[in-house]
Design brief:
The complex is a heterodimer of chains A (about 260) and B (about 260). By secondary structure, chain A is mainly α. Chain A contains eleven helices and no strands. Chain B is mostly helical and about 260 residues long. Chain B is about 80% helix and about 0% strand. Chain B contains ten helices and no strands. Classes of the chains: A mainly alpha (about 260), B mainly alpha (about 260).
């Protein structure tokens, strides 16, 4: 195995070299400036986005905050609804088998295909975007909560019974903690879905938010701002999934505990 | 035993769908929701058959399927080749991985404007977006699969005299197949979601275009609902087909 330090050095070199060649290729006329705005031009774009903003007055910060706020509303509502519903469905096998096909179907409906319907119902404003994010997050979260409850190791449940636990107490003190890691994984997945949905939803009917920014920039032939916006979207996605992974390790120290106990 | 169980599962699942559809039908018929903005299933189908011919819908669906299949195949082939190579050849992996990790957090839809800048508004830009939807899950899974092969397996094969491409082809790739399969299924789902979005934003045919056009021209909500249901069923059906094909293909190598 290659050492992590070597990997990191090579990574920096590769990316640095790529940016350098890109800059040169544009300077020598091999690549068109509009199609491949060089790093120096993107840096200028960043300066403009931080100070005056694009469209004028809307800085990169307010685009980012708008997007984050939309995701947060839809995501929080979806998770808050999916956890109780999923726990109930997961607790009763018959209910689970009855709802399974509906859940699978609703999850298969591409979230953005609901956009035209959402516009008819809620107009082209904020609510439509929040509802779409909520829809996408909800079904992913719901199926993960149900799976989490169903996958709880039967040995744990039997052990809990031997200690005299039953009914709601057994559920709360044994099933719930054992299901939490998978639920958390579902929460991460759902956030990823929310992130995908918002970029698409913002491309229609708004000028605020990162999805709108990259689309608007293209219409005004500002490709460097498009690329800048993509970079911010990528960074956000990276930071959010990394942050949740870290949180998972901190909040759920018993996650990998069972394997250790068995050994 | 498991056959009986699966049969009753399917029956209960069907019952669940019927209950949901009946509740929806009843809500719209009783006036609990306004049928003009939320028609019942039968009303939606009636509106759709009145406004669209079967040939129109089939044409849109065919375009969508052709796009998603093309982009998905390109993305899968590129993902498998690059992912396996990056996992197998250390030097290539060192160079390729940072680039993949750099681009992977950007959702495929965020590439739409750049795709239009690079390829124009035609088919290539849509293929490119769908390609990305399949590429990243597949390349990640392929890399993971190849780098996590049981070393004992490789050593055993080497003892039997296999090396180089033969070792890769006959041992490493079959061993990584379950990971590849997972990546391919995720990739198909993502390609499909991306397809619809791409058709909503910039297309002049396809199912995504069909529904956004219906709303833009002030048409019937029933048509939109039928379109959404068709998209959902296509996604579900094709995913099931891919799962079946994977089971059939990989079941030979792996006991489950």
């Amino acid at each position: 195995m290659t050492r992590p330090a070597t990997q990191r050095i090579v990574a920096v070199l590769v990316i640095g070299l790529l940016l350098f060649v890109w800059e040169l290729a544009v300077a020598w006329g091999w690549l068109r400036v509009y199609q491949f705005p060089p790093p120096s031009r993107i840096a200028d774009g960043l300066r403009e986005m931080v100070t005056t903003g694009f469209p004028t007055g809307i800085t990169i910060w307010s685009h980012t905050l708008t997007t984050l706020w939309r995701i947060l509303q839809g995501y929080a509502a979806a998770v808050a609804l999916a956890i109780p519903v999923g726990l109930v469905i997961g607790a009763f096998p018959t209910l689970d088998r009855l709802t399974a096909s509906v859940v699978v179907f609703c999850r298969s409906v591409a979230t953005l295909s609901l956009l035209p319907l959402a516009i008819v119902w809620f107009g082209a404003g904020e609510l439509t975007k929040v509802v779409l994010i909520g829809y996408g997050c909800f079904w992913v979260m719901l199926s993960n909560v149900i799976a989490a409850v169903k996958q709880v190791d039967p040995a744990l449940v039997r052990a809990g019974r031997s200690f005299g636990l039953s009914g709601p107490r057994l559920y709360r003190e044994v099933v719930l903690p054992a299901a939490t890691p998978r639920m958390f994984a579902g929460a991460r997945m759902a956030l990823g879905v929310g992130f995908m949905v918002i970029v698409g939803a913002e491309m229609i009917g708004t000028i605020e938010g990162l999805g709108a920014l990259i689309m608007e920039a293209r219409s005004f032939y500002r490709s460097e701002i498009t690329i800048l916006g993509m970079a911010v979207i990528g960074l956000l996605g990276f930071a959010i999934s990394g942050g949740l992974g870290w949180l998972q390790g901190r909040l759920l120290p018993w996650e990998s505990g069972l394997d250790a106990v068995r050994r | 035993m498991s056959g009986v169980r699966a049969g009753s599962d399917a029956l209960l699942g069907l019952a669940g769908i019927c209950i949901a559809l009946l509740a929806w039908e009843a809500a719209a018929r009783s006036g609990a929701v306004d049928p003009a903005i939320f028609p019942s299933p039968t009303q939606a189908i009636a509106a759709a058959t009145a406004r669209l011919g079967l040939a129109d819908v089939a044409g849109h669906a065919a375009w969508s399927m052709a796009r998603v299949t093309g982009g998905f195949l390109l993305g899968t082939v590129a993902g498998v080749v690059i992912g396996v190579a990056a996992g197998w050849y250390r030097g290539f992996g060192l160079v390729a991985r940072p680039l993949i990790e750099l681009l992977r957090p950007i959702p495929p839809l965020a590439w739409i404007p750049l795709a239009i800048i690079w390829f124009g508004l035609g088919e290539p830009s849509k293929l490119f977006i769908i390609f990305l939807g399949a590429f990243f899950p597949v390349v990640t899974a392929a890399y993971h699969g190849v780098t996590n092969i049981d070393p004992g397996l490789i050593r055993a094969a080497q003892t039997f005299g296999l090396r180089g491409p033969a070792l890769l082809w006959r041992v490493a790739i079959p061993a990584a197949a379950p990971d590849l399969a997972t990546g391919i299924r995720i990739g198909w789902g993502l390609s499909f979601g991306v397809l619809v979005a791409a058709e909503l934003i910039a297309a002049d045919r396809g199912l995504g275009y069909m529904i956004i056009n219906e709303r833009n021209t002030g048409g019937s909500v029933g048509v939109i609902i039928v379109g959404i249901l068709i998209i959902g069923m296509l996604n579900l059906g094709t995913d099931a087909m891919i799962a079946r094909a994977i089971d059939w293909k990989i079941g030979r190598w792996h006991g489950n």
